[in-house]
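The protein record now logged underneath.
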Amino acid sequence: MATQLRELMISRESTEGESAAATLVYDVIGTSNDIAVKQDVDAGAPDTYDGLTKQSVHVEPIFVDTLAGYGRYLATVRYGLLPPPKEAGEASFSFDTTGGQQKITQSLQTIGAYAPAGKTAPDFKGAIGVTHEAVEGVEITVPVFGFTLTLYLAAASVTSAYLEDIKSLTGKVNNAIWNVYVDGVTITAQAGECLFLGASGSKRGADDWEISFKFALSRNVSGLSVGDISGINKKGWEYLWVRYDDADDAAASALVKRPMAAYVEKVYELGDFTKIAGYVV
C-alpha cells in the first residue's frame, strides 16, 4: 500500500517575530517502514511555509503491523528562520578552552614534605619526581585558548600568492601585536602569544571562498621563579626548561637534585599575521 499523507486540523501552529516558527502536522498511513515514512513526508511537505524554511521532520508511530506491512504515523514538520548566508568580506568566530598538555618538572609550590620520625625530607626546591638519576616531572593541563576564525573572501583575493602566505605562516607565532575583531569579540595577542595551526577552505560557488584559520593563544609571562632562580621572562610559545645538578642538603644529610639553571628557548619562527586578512589587524 502506498503511503498517504493527510494534513490534520491541529496543523499550522505558528509564531511570529525573531524566533518565527511553524509546524505542519500529518496523519500518515501505508507502509510499516518508518524510514520510508520520513522520506515520503519530507518529499510531500512544502520546502517553505509562510516565509520559513523546512528544518526537521519528526515521525511518531501510532500503529505498526510489520507482518502486514501496514502502519499509521503522526508526522510533524517544523519550519523556522535560517541565518542569512555569510557574504564575502564577513567573518565568524568560535573558540575552545579545553587547554593543552605539558610536562613540567617544577611545581608552583611544595605544599608538604614528609619523612620518618627523626628524619628530614630532602628539599628539592620544587622539583617533581626526583630519582637518583633524573627529574621525571608530571603531565598537567595548561591554559591554551584555541579559536577558529572563518573568513569569507572574494574569489579574486584568494590567489596562489595568498595561499602560499597561509602555508608559510603555519606553525609560526605573531611577530607583533595582533588584534582580531569579529562577532563583537576582540582578541589582542602580544608578540609571541598566538600560534597559527593552519587553515582549511573551499570555494563557495564562483564568487567567494570560505576559509577557516585555527589558532592557539598562550600568554607571555614574566617574573617566573624556578627553585632559587627568579626573574625569568618567557613569551607564550617559547619553551622553558631546567638544568638540574646534584647538591648537598645538609638538613637532610642527603645528595639531592636541584635546579641550577633555567633556559628559555625560541622554538617557533615569527610571522606577519596581517597577511591572513587585511581587516584583521
The mean pLDDT is 89. The chain has two domains: 4-80, 86-281.
